[in-house]
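Why should sequence recovery work at all? Because a backbone constrains its sequence more than one might expect. Tight turns favour small or flexible residues, buried strands favour hydrophobic ones, and helices have their own preferences. The token representation captures these environments compactly. In the example below, the structure is given first.
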């Protein structure tokens, strides 16, 4: 019986060792699975974060490009408006110049007409000068300080 007990004790000990080994293997397998799950979860989180950051960067770049395009369009519009304003100012300048020239021409014409009428109103025609020559000569003799042009007209005739 001693041997049988020893065999039985050895068998129980082997059973215990097998169970302990099985439990350790199971624990090791669970630990490894937990580590693998943790790594997968970490990798998934890193991947999601990277994807989120990439979307943020892409959105910022798109916004930057949109702003640049708006600025370009605004600059083009401002340039067109400035050119149109410059053309309008030039056109207005030309119109003002033309108006000034027309007014000057009209004033010159009026001045010439006034001078012509003033000249012709006070001037005698040649026939009038001949008819009035004796009278005018008498005026010239009495008033030697008459304007030269009038005196010469009287003396010529």
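From this structural description, the recovered sequence reads:
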């Amino acid at each position: 019986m001693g041997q049988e007990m020893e065999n039985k004790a050895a068998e129980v000990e082997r059973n215990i060792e097998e169970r302990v080994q099985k439990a350790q293997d199971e624990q090791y397998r669970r630990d490894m699975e937990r580590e693998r799950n943790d790594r997968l979860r970490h990798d998934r989180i890193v991947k999601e974060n990277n994807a989120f950051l990439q979307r943020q960067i892409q959105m910022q770049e798109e916004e930057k490009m949109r702003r640049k395009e708006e600025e370009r369009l605004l600059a083009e519009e401002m340039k067109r408006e400035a050119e149109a304003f410059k053309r309008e100012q030039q056109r207005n300048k030309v119109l003002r110049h033309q108006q000034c020239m027309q007014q000057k021409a009209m004033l010159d014409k009026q001045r010439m007409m006034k001078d012509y009428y003033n000249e012709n109103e006070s001037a005698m025609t040649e026939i009038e000068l001949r008819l009035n020559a004796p009278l005018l000569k008498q005026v010239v003799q009495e008033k030697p300080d008459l304007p030269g042009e009038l005196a010469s007209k009287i003396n010529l005739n």
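A few observations help interpret the result. The mean pLDDT is 86.
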